[in-house]
Design brief:
With 191 residues, this protein is mainly alpha-helical. 60% of the residues lie in helices and 6% in strands. The protein has two domains: 3-120, Arc Repressor Mutant, subunit A (Orthogonal Bundle), CATH 1.10.10; 139-190.
């Protein structure tokens, strides 16, 4: 933790943050349309109390340059610091998302920031179970994969003239494959 961060944390914040400002969806999307403002909110997400604007600028510069805070250059830091100082932090302060003390160079998130986090963070639905991961195929993906394999087997067997498949007309095989996928789609939609 830098000396600046320690100094900022030692200063007490007497501001009441219990009331969140109501924002319209247009205001929310306007605030979140800029990547730097999103990165400021990302940085503030896990912080408590006042944070140094310099620390925010350093981390945002590191994210923008796919680097670490220790390896960013002074010019990279300045390219982020100036727009944050002049535009982005005052805008977030004006909308009640943060409390920005420009003269001290400190930022404190407000309860309104929590409203914006809902738009930044991916949400899980109630249908998602803990057993399912993004890498593991879902039940319906397995059904479609099985139907594809069965359809490919029927089509290949009919085309190559294998005995049980050669007796079936090509049109009926096509209809059977279409029926399998139609049934799966309907079943998934109703589930």
């Amino acid at each position: 933790m830098s000396a600046t961060t320690q100094q900022v944390e030692e200063q007490s914040n007497s501001t009441d943050m219990s009331t969140a400002v109501e924002l319209s969806e247009d205001q929310i999307y306007h605030l979140l349309q800029n990547e730097r403002r999103r990165n400021v909110l990302r940085y503030l997400h896990d912080t408590e109390g006042q944070v140094s604007m310099r620390d925010i600028a350093e981390q945002v510069a590191a994210w923008e340059n796919d680097s670490t805070v220790q390896s960013i250059t002074s010019s990279e830091r300045q390219r982020v610091y100036i727009p944050l100082y002049q535009s982005h932090l005052p805008k977030l302060d004006e909308e009640g998302v943060i409390e920005y003390d420009q003269s001290r160079g400190t930022v404190t998130k407000t309860e309104t920031a929590n409203v914006l986090y809902e738009y930044l963070e991916p949400t899980t639905t109630d249908d998602t179970t803990d057993n399912e991961s993004d890498d593991e195929p879902t039940r319906w993906e397995r059904y479609y994969l099985g139907a594809s394999g069965l359809g490919a087997t029927l089509l290949a067997g009919s085309t190559l003239g294998f005995s049980p498949f050669a007796l079936l007309p090509h049109g009926s095989i096509g209809l059977a494959i279409l029926g399998m996928f139609w049934t799966l789609t309907l079943g998934q939609r109703l589930a």
